[in-house]
Amino acid sequence: MKYQKVKIALIALCILAAGLCYGMNSSREDRTPGISLSEASAFPYGENAAGIPAADDGSPADGNPSGIGVQAAGGAEVSGGAGQSASEAAEDSLESAGEIIALPFYVHICGEVVSPGVYELQEGSRVFQAIEKAGGFTDQAEAEYLNMAERVFDGMKIQVLNKEEAEAARTRGELSLPAAASSKALKTKVNLNTATKEELMTLRGIGEAKADDILKYRESRGGFQKIEDIMKISGIKDAAFQKIKEDISV
Questions:
Q1: Residue 211 shares a structural domain with residue 133
Q2: Where is this region: Disordered (predicted)?
């Protein structure tokens, strides 16, 4: 009799414990946030809560996890695409829309031109454009001694000789054919004993410091006896001499 009462009491305790566990699980599920079936059906197929078209996996169709674009000035939208920031996209736009601007420089034009002087030209200009800036040739100019297609450079001096000066210079050997020029396109050699500092600086590899050294040597030694004497100047060796030997005279 006692055994039956104990058995009934144990069964009652088990039923009570099962009821308590079931009640606790139900309360946890009620507190878990979620969207009900009725709320989920309120959104059209293929859109999320923000109204943005979604891919099959529910993410925004444009690959942007946040579904938000960045709007730049002018109304253009810059997406947060992988590997490119908004600043990089702006730089690409500037490069594609940019243009190459030619830098100005100055050329001294003298001799038989209408208006000798210093003129501003654009990078890539030719001798004929420099002559046009100076008003063109005078009637006495000997134009055939100039290479009209030669490129000019910053600080260049273009001297237009008259017919008598050109013939005298040719006789003295102070006129030579420039590289890649026609038979009539000649340019004046730089005389080491009479050239100014600016004229010396027109020689390849001769900057301001070396031009000063040439002038000092000329004054202290009474001039150059032959063009090879220029190699006595510090910093001017055979390699440098070979580049300018066709452009100098004494």
A1: no
A2: 53-89
Domain range holding 219? 189-250
Between the CA of residue 187 and those of 14, 66, 76, what are the distances in Å?
A: 118, 70, 57
- Mean pLDDT check: name the lowest of 47-56, 73-82, 238-247: 73-82
Residue 221 and residue 234 in one domain: yes
pTM to 2 decimals? 0.35
Same-domain status, 206 and 162 = no
In a domain, 34, yes or no: no
Residues 208-241 as b or e (16 or more Cβ within 10 Å = b):
eebbebbeebbeeeeebeebeebeebeebeeebb
pLDDT in tens, 82-98: 445 555 555 555 444 44
Q: Tell me the per-residue pLDDT of 106-134, one tens digit each, with 9 for 90 and over.
A: 999 999 999 999 999 988 889 999 999 99
